[in-house]
Design a protein that fits this description.
By secondary structure, the chain is mainly alpha-helical. It has 10 helices and no strands. The two termini are 40 Å apart.
Length: 232
């Protein structure tokens, strides 16, 4: 019998939580009045920045202008954001929140991939109501490595939350890697659809998503038989 300090037990204790269980339970009911007031200021800064970015382009806008448009000081701006790049990332987080809302609202009888497809179409169509900002954001993500790194960190958290949602939806546990795989797939489809829209400027978002899923299906069906052993 291993002692409490045995290497095997230490290894188990040091392992991270399963991916789909990494998100803490909702703390909405515990949010303080102060935190809600802070969110109002944060939202005002984000909205002001988005409007300025849309009108004048990201590079031309300064932190001082964002603060002034939101009715706060430059000093206050830096209490909430580290830079104007950080504001852009915060705005992109809202697109991720919309995707989570749409995915959570899908009927439970929908198969996982169909639920993801339908949620993506609705969330992306909603995001493209600000088409000029999406164009500017996509261009910046392609050209600015610092912004890409910041977005990737937030996107990783989004994947964890999608995985937790899919685990609940499927009634499975963290032993099953399927929710994690579906979360990666959802994020990839979301990002690829926005990029495809940027390149082709089409209003047929459902067609873009369906085309990507069709291409994915073709790739999967083309997998050599030796990699499909044990699969049904």
């Amino acid at each position: 019998m291993s002692s409490p300090s045995s290497p095997d037990q230490r290894d188990v204790e040091q392992k991270a939580k399963p991916f789909a269980e990494a998100v803490p339970p909702s703390m909405v009911s515990m949010v303080s009045l102060k935190a809600r007031k802070q969110q109002v200021v944060r939202d005002a800064l984000s909205a002001a920045a988005a409007e300025l970015f849309r009108k004048r382009g990201f590079e031309a806008v300064t932190v001082e202008e964002i603060a002034r448009a939101a009715g706060v000081s430059r000093r206050t701006f830096f209490r909430y954001f580290d830079s104007k790049e950080d504001v852009m990332v915060d705005h992109l987080d809202r697109d991720g929140e919309r995707l989570l809302v749409e995915l959570a609202a899908r009927p439970l009888e929908e198969p996982p991939l169909l639920a993801i497809r339908n949620a993506l179409v609705l969330a992306i169509e909603y995001g493209l109501q600000e088409a000029d900002l999406i164009r500017e954001t996509t261009r910046l993500l392609r050209e600015t490595s610092a912004l890409r790194r910041a977005v990737m960190e937030r996107r990783n958290r989004l994947e964890e939350r999608i995985a937790a949602l899919m685990m609940q939806r499927m009634g499975t546990t963290s032993v099953d890697n399927t929710p994690m795989l579906l979360a990666f797939l959802t994020r990839a489809l979301n990002d690829t659809t926005f990029n495809a829209w940027y390149d082709h400027e089409t209003n047929n978002i459902a067609g873009l998503v369906d085309d990507l899923i069709s291409r994915l299906r073709t790739i999967v069906l083309d997998v050599p038989l030796e990699f499909r052993k044990g699969q049904t």
